Amino acid sequence: MAGQAVTAEMVEQQYETREVAFEQLIEGDAAAAVTRLEAELEANPGDPAILINLGSAHAQLGNYEQAEAYYQAARDSDEEYQLELANGRWLDSRDAARLALASVEFEALASR
């Protein structure tokens, strides 16, 4: 999941699009993604899609502790909705955060 970003599509009662730096993450430009996502997080604190993608960006940069913190924040967020993953699969935001957290914890262990 660390390499798995969520797209800008999410569902509650209807579709809503939000900027979540999907293109930068897919292109491997994690530093640009962090900059964009931190600005988005200020306007939308607690948004699981932004938090998950911030975690993914930090995981790409090798900042596993920061990635874990963002994934945990997404998992624990008061907001919850369905996210479309980069592979087209739809998943509850808390489940996506749990999956990402397990993945980054594994990567952190493997890199030691």
UniProtKB/TrEMBL annotation:
Residue ranges of TPR repeats: 48-81
The UniProt record lists the keyword Disulfide bond: no
Key words, A-Z: TPR repeat
Organism: Aurantiacibacter sediminis
Protein name: Tetratricopeptide repeat protein
